[in-house]
Specification:
Order of helices and strands: HHHHH
Structural class: mainly alpha
Strand content: under 5%
Helix content: over 70%
Radius of gyration: 19 Å
Number of helices: 5
Length: 104
């Protein structure tokens, strides 16, 4: 504000500019909620806390996890397709165990 920037107007423009791509991505990625929570924690256990290695490993691990979940969802109930979200939701108990182990 002291530099001559209209802060409320810039704030609104930034909110709108950030929310449009975010919303379009979230519409396409409805079933990866647990993958986005679980995979970085698992990768941190494997590779450590160095973000130079953790971020690419998390991206690759998440892609692998979704491919495996999709393959299992298509083959477990062969004549019908099981939603991928049902397969990724099976990871929720493992995530809770990881959190519990970290807290203890």
């Amino acid at each position: 504000m002291h530099l001559g920037v209209d802060v409320p107007r810039v704030r609104i423009v930034v909110y709108i500019a950030a929310s449009i791509p975010h919303r379009s991505c979230r519409q396409r990625q409805r079933y990866d909620r647990y993958v986005g929570l679980l995979v970085p924690h698992v990768m941190r256990l494997i590779f450590g806390s160095d973000h130079r290695m953790l971020i690419p490993a998390s991206a690759l691990g998440g892609a692998i996890a979704l491919v495996i979940a999709d393959t299992l969802a298509r083959t477990v109930t062969s004549p019908t397709d099981l939603p991928v979200g049902a397969m990724t939701a099976l990871a929720a108990p493992h995530f809770l165990l990881l959190l519990r182990r970290r807290m203890a």
